[in-house]
Amino acid sequence: QVQLVESGGGLVQAGGSLRLSCAASGIIFSINTMGWYRQAPGKQREFVAAMTSTGTTNYADSVKGRFTISRDSARKTVYLQMNSLKPEDTAVYYCSFTSVASVIYWGQGTQVTVSS
After folding, report:
1. For 92-114, how does the pLDDT look when each residue is reduced to its tens digit (9 = 90+)?
2. From CA 85, how far away is CA 1, in angstroms rounded?
3. Number of CB atoms found within 10 A of residue 50's CB
4. CB 69 within 8 A of CB 36
5. Cα separation of 94 and 116, whole Å?
6. What are the beta bridge partners of residue 50?
7. 87 by DSSP, 3-state: which?
8. Distance from C-alpha of 30 to C-alpha of 53, rounded to nearest angstrom
9. What's the CA gap between 106 and 97, in Å, rounded?
10. Contact at 8 Å (CB) between 77 and 22?
């Protein structure tokens, strides 16, 4: 099994920045994908960004140019640098880990609130 621990959420003004972190532990393999999803109240969870263990990235159109996903050298921690935040970015952000067997694990979620 894989455990994911997230941090970095908070309350910021529009135009501000936040950096989310997610550390994976447990039984993992070299080939995997880590990423971020978000869910606003009353809305479906949506894809935000993802990065493979080889460095390939993918972003939702709504965050391109504003958000940047990265992973540490050990490929067990994923980050999401969020710049130029907008009120519509307000949501619970969930870290995801997709294993080599395509099993998806989720973090507990961290709240991001953008005011204004």
Report:
1. 999 999 998 899 999 999 999 99
2. 33
3. 19
4. yes
5. 23
6. 35, 58
7. helix
8. 7
9. 7
10. yes
